[in-house]
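P.,

For your records, the input lines for the assembly:
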Amino acid sequence: MATNVIFLGAPGAGKGTQAQILREKYGYYQISTGDLLRENIKRGTPTGKVAESFMKRGELVPDEVIVAMVRDALPADRARPVIFDGFPRTIPQAQALDAMLKEQKHSLPRVVSFCIALREAEERMLVRGREDDAAETIKRRFEVFQEHKREIEGYYDNPSSERFVEIDASQPVEVVTRQLLRALELRAAS
Ligand code: B4P
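Structure tokens returned:
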């Protein structure tokens, strides 16, 4: 049976792109904190109002806002595997996720780290041109990513864990998907 999975990686590494493929072809339920935040901003909710200024500056949105949002988004249906796309990004978020999954009897997730050179991820984002993809904001998002990368990967990548795997996210989309399916022990859908 497919298991829950966390996607870690730099901005622009392609986490959202692969999450969409797993959702559409493999029945995963996708929780993308970036998408949820953008949706909240669009609807003008209290969460969106807090998040907007942080996202515009390329900063992380405060942990308590993110954790509450994910808690609300977690599906009651435990049979459907969940992709946590872009979450957790900090240790408090990781600890909160562990507690949430335990409390709601969801299975422990596998963790996939999308590896890519920052210059390449930057080029992808400049082409994409989302509101927070301006050169200055991208620079800050990379700095923030580097500040947290070691601790968050270290949280999951340790000798007692067999749940952590790295994939080469610099490859074309379909090659990345193949690596991902192998990592998750899934067969390719036709
Ligand atoms: P996110 O929405 O998570 O944005 P991202 O990291 O840029 O996206 P991703 O890696 O998913 O890249 P994508 O597939 O789109 O975060 C945005 C902001 O929200 C953060 O800066 C932060 O402020 C806030 N936030 C989100 N989560 C948070 C949390 N947990 N805590 C605090 N704050 C949080 O791919 C990028 C581009 O590359 C696309 O155009 C795509 O078409 C292209 N692409 C993808 N794969 C490719 C490939 N293999 N080859 C060539 N191009 C590819």
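Two observations worth noting. The CA atoms of residues 106 and 114 lie 24 Å apart. Residues 9, 11-17, 33-34, 37, 54-55, 58, 60-61, 66, 86-89, 93, 124-125, 128, 132, 141, 172-173, 176 surround BIS(adenosine)-5'-tetraphosphate (CB under 6 Å).

Regards
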